């Protein structure tokens, strides 16, 4: 019985290895081990995402949403999926909050960013007289983000090769103040 189980697992492992290696080969394109169009098409049907999730640029700008508390302190409004607040990934709250945040960011225009560049972060937090970008609240659109005032911080991640030379690299941050009401 053990030999049959071992043979079954070995066959599954070999089949998985062949499938993954053929998928990698089919996604590479023109090279020394050229595949036919039919093979590439078959694997794009079997694995439609391919290896695209490895191709996101690490130099893309990153946005972080902070909520301004009544005592003028900041709290992170969107948490990582693997944080303990999200039950280490079992809760979908962070995914919902990030989806709502992306909806908010879709309503923000580039000119909105430009109007806040003359203010510092402390000016944006402490002053109630600085005009904000208004996002209309809808109970169907927002579930995790509540009504309130938020700060969005936009920055680029420092490449790890440059991190050891901070005097030669500047990482400008941009801020945006918005209100969901």
TrEMBL record:
Domain of life: Bacteria
Record-linked Pfam families: SdpA
Keywords for this protein: Signal
Annotated signal peptide: 1-26
Annotated protein name in UniProt: Antimicrobial peptide system SdpA family protein
The species this protein was found in: Hymenobacter chitinivorans DSM 11115
């Amino acid at each position: 019985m053990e030999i049959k189980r071992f043979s079954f697992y070995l066959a599954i492992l070999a089949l998985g290895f062949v499938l993954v290696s053929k998928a990698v080969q089919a996604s590479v394109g023109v090279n020394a081990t050229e595949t036919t169009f039919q093979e590439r098409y078959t694997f794009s049907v079997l694995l439609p995402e391919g290896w695209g999730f490895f191709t996101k640029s690490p130099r893309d700008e990153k946005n972080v949403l902070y909520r301004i508390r009544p005592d003028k302190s900041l709290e992170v409004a969107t948490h990582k999926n693997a944080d303990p607040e999200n039950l280490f990934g079992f809760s979908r709250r962070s995914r919902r909050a990030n989806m709502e945040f992306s909806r908010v960011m879709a309503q923000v225009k580039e000119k909105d960013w430009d109007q806040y560049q003359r203010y510092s972060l402390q000016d944006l937090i402490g002053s109630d007289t600085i005009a904000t970008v208004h996002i209309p609240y809808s109970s169907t659109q927002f579930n995790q983000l509540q009504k309130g005032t938020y700060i969005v911080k936009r920055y680029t991640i420092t490449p790890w090769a440059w991190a050891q030379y901070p005097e030669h690299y500047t990482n400008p941050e941009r801020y945006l103040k918005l209100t969901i009401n």
